[in-house]
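Sequence in, structure out.
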Amino acid sequence: MLFIFGFNYLKGSSLLDRQKTIYAVYDEVDGLLVGANVMINGLSIGNVTELDFLTNSTKILVTLKVKDKLNFSSKSTASIYETGVLGGLAISIEPVFDREFIVKSGDTLKSSVRPGLTELINRQIEPLSRQLQSTITSVDSIFTGASNVLNRQTQEEIKESISVLTSAINAINNSSIIIEETLTAKNNQIKNTIDNFENISSNLSDVSNELNSAGLSNLITSLEVSVEGINSIVSKLESDNSTIGKLLNEDDIYNNLNLSLQNLSLLIDDIKSNPKKYVHFSVFGRK
């Protein structure tokens, strides 16, 4: 009796606890062994007691024994998963609670297989591997194209271009040295020229001050006053309120004045032609 009790204890089953026997069917079990734990949320509720093929099928029937007091539904899912890199495989029950379909001995649960750590790593590495292969192919194509473009003639032309560029840089360097030597030799002359510009600027400032002190500002003020007076006169001439403005701007006054001058001219001509008509002389004092 002790041997039987100990044997069942090592298998993960207890003679003292009532258990339910349930089943799950898998296409493959990925190395699941008899005695593997059956878990709910990381807590062991039983173990795997048997692995065998279904009759006339390659599918694998897994027999599970779980605690009888658990009341999850027969619609729950039994998933094979990897407990760790070295931990082996176990089955996790993803419970669904439905009072109308409480699991009982002989029921078969839905089944699934979770990807293990190795498979997840392979899934992550596979796209990177494809990208790396594509990159290597592209680099190989680039080197092949560069090899075709950079033939012997092209290489010679590149060398010649580099030589010409080197000569140009040397010429620029020599020119800069000559300019530096010239500036050094003509330093005193350049300094004198700058001093002359400063003297000219100072003289112009003095001339401006002298003109200002000579009454140029007063003259400008007088000119401004005269211009204002001329502007006032012109404004009055253009205005219709002044006599001259009316004479300049109104045609009637001009026409009347012109007509009067014409009549006066006719009168003078008539007086010259007929003086007796206008002037009477008498020897005896009679008009």
